[in-house]
Amino acid sequence: MDCCLWESGFERMDGGQAGGCRRCEEGGCGLLGPGSFVPRTRQLSRGARLESGSSLKLWTVLDGIVALCTLLADGRRQVVCLSTPGEVLCPPEEAQGLSLWIEALAESQICEFDLSVRVQSIASDATLSAGLFRIAREQVACVYAHLVTLGRLDGMERVCLFLADMAWRIGERTPAGYRVRLPLAREDIADYLGLNAETVSRIFSRVKKARLADFNSPTEYVVRDLEALQSRAPILAPHGPAAFDAENLTGKMARKMEVSL
Amino acid sequence: MDCCLWESGFERMDGGQAGGCRRCEEGGCGLLGPGSFVPRTRQLSRGARLESGSSLKLWTVLDGIVALCTLLADGRRQVVCLSTPGEVLCPPEEAQGLSLWIEALAESQICEFDLSVRVQSIASDATLSAGLFRIAREQVACVYAHLVTLGRLDGMERVCLFLADMAWRIGERTPAGYRVRLPLAREDIADYLGLNAETVSRIFSRVKKARLADFNSPTEYVVRDLEALQSRAPILAPHGPAAFDAENLTGKMARKMEVSL
DNA sequence: CGCGGGCTTGAATCCGCTCAAGTGGGGTGG
DNA sequence: CCACCCCACTTGAGCGGATTCAAGCCCGCG
Questions:
Q1: Nearest to B10 by CA among B30, B28, B24
Q2: Which is nearest to A50 in space by CA: A63, A67, A34?
Q3: With CB atoms 3.0 to 4.6 Å apart as the test, which of A161, B130, B202, B253 could cross-link to A129 if both were Cys?
Q4: Cβ <8 Å between A145 and B235
Q5: Report field, pTM of the whole predicted structure over 0.90
Q6: Strand partners, B66
Q7: Residues 220-249 of A with CB under 8 A from B
Q8: Is the Cβ of B172 closer than 8 Å to some Cβ of chain A?
Q9: β-sheet bridge partners, residue A217
Q10: Is B260 in CB contact (< 8 Å) with chain A?
Q11: What is the pLDDT of residues A163-192, one digit of tens each?
């Protein structure tokens, strides 16, 4: 089953001939090329889990939102990273005795490639392994930023960064600003930010009071001034600048980077 | 300059013929093979920094201890990862606008490879890029564990995990237990653990009082019962099980992993 | 209409931080 | 050799932010 065939909403790269879809262009389908690996799409309902088991797998999120999760013995949970449509995941099976899994936080579709079926290809195909290296490298940079967030930012900063990041990733631009439909529960957000659900809720109220975002409902907010929100955190939103249109943003980014030195 | 020639203490893999040293066997020299890249050893005194700039570089720590650091605009610092002798580093230049650098936390020696000088090799050499993928992947697993530490463990747990991890990495086994010469300042430990120096000091005192470790001086401690120390944290020490002799540890690890599910 | 789950808000507690004072060991200069 | 200094570390007091526990609210659903 080809991920592009799964739903007609996903455009094929070449009009339907070879494998690969636009959503995967930068990810699985783009990297693995047409034909050599067989992708498989999966529909995940909220709470559903995927584990790579002992095999090396690669996933591209097509729709929804998924988390890479882990759980401690006493039930404490940590969301290690959040992935939104278009992003590629290739997580290790476990990290130092902590088992990891992919969990859908909302109804999601995901495209799966099992690389283990052709292990030699990985060792002998330079393009493929260079691509995997690139993916792993991006993941490293992303986790570093999140690690700094958990290690050094306070609650307000974490939440503002999260809201700005989500606006960039899944917000839709409207005349009133960025409108974001948040498909996450407070608990999920808390587990991502290293806080607890009540604290997240309280901080959302403060954000609202400070007019940094308007919450129309528990699952939707609008950001009028994304930069004001972003500037509340001393780190750039992980997915910000790339998704932003060029304008003078590069200059702004350079300035921020300078400051952060 | 070949890293093995730098100091006679580092044994060559093949008795001196081709490049590569034992310390690098699993890292730079082992991966890059003799001859194709020229390693360069550097002596770093405490506080010295290395930056990859725009080029892709790979470092193997030969001696001492180095940190991958970042700094926020207001001076908050976070140590993203700590590397001890034998470990390989290939960090991105920056993570979401946060610039990263390698900083020696004690007198250190490090072996550097500049991969940019032969960019095509990376794209066309499958063995090389597969090796880089493996390195990046290990780094991802390591950072995930640290991220969970910062997100969900309290001070005591973080410190116990740190002390156990260091015992495994740089402790020497003596009849009295593991003796560890800690070449780090309290501030550095704090920046690694997302705490502050005073808190680290206070928790060290608690650890001492609880007889989990004896501090002979601010820079040396002895752990009698490594397992007792380790069990204070609900995560395995990042570098623990591998450095531990086999005995029944695999069984214990399996049990822990089960529980953590 | 009642139920339940997720969200919000409040009160009390606890943990880590800030600020500040005190201690100890290594190094320098007299 | 000793006195002194300096810096890192330790320890204490008070504060503030996040958690816990608990109550109340909102909304969808049976």
A1: B24
A2: A67
A3: B130
A4: no
A5: no
A6: B83, B104
A7: 234-238, 240-241
A8: no
A9: A220
A10: yes
A11: 999 999 999 999 999 999 999 999 999 999
